[in-house]
Amino acid sequence: MKKALIAIGAAGLMASACASDPYGGTNETAKQGAIGAGLGAVAGAIIGNNVGSGNAATGALIGGLAGGAVGAIRGSNQDRANQQRYRDNGGAYYYCYDNRQSECYWENGQRRN
């Protein structure tokens, strides 16, 4: 049982370490979602085993899903907070991430050159 908990937690942490966007920045949605899934799975397994049902696997599954969802929502909010909104001379808005003017997108999602 203890080995399963360690493996579940390690898998969540390893997945979060690999979460990045294609342009080199961190993707907080994936990163925090993976961390939440790992922590939720561990907590769910412990709770599921201690409640008396003895079904740690079901608790780990439910905890992983709930933790992943909560982590992804939190990460998505952080990704939005990292966006910087600008306006060009023509009045059109575009977004840049992490104050890097090299990675900008128009409001419709197209990359700004």
Automatic annotation (TrEMBL):
Keyword Acyltransferase: no
Stretch forming the signal peptide: 1-19
Stored Pfam families: Gly-zipper_YMGG
Protein name: YMGG-like Gly-zipper domain-containing protein
Organism: Brevundimonas goettingensis
Domain YMGG-like Gly-zipper: 27-75
Keyword Zinc recorded: no
Keyword field: Signal
InterPro entries for the chain: Gly-zipper_YMGG
PROSITE patterns: PROKAR_LIPOPROTEIN
